[in-house]
Amino acid sequence: MTAPHDTVPTPTPPPGPCPDAARTGATPDRSPLPTWLAARLKRDRDGLVAAVVQQHDTREVLMVGWMDDEALRRTLSQGRVTFWSRSRKEYWRKGDTSGHHQYVKAVSIDCDGDALLIEVDQVGAACHTGARTCFLAGGDLGAVQGSRPGT
Ligand SMILES: [Zn+2]
Question: pTM for the full model?
Answer without folding.
Answer: 0.80
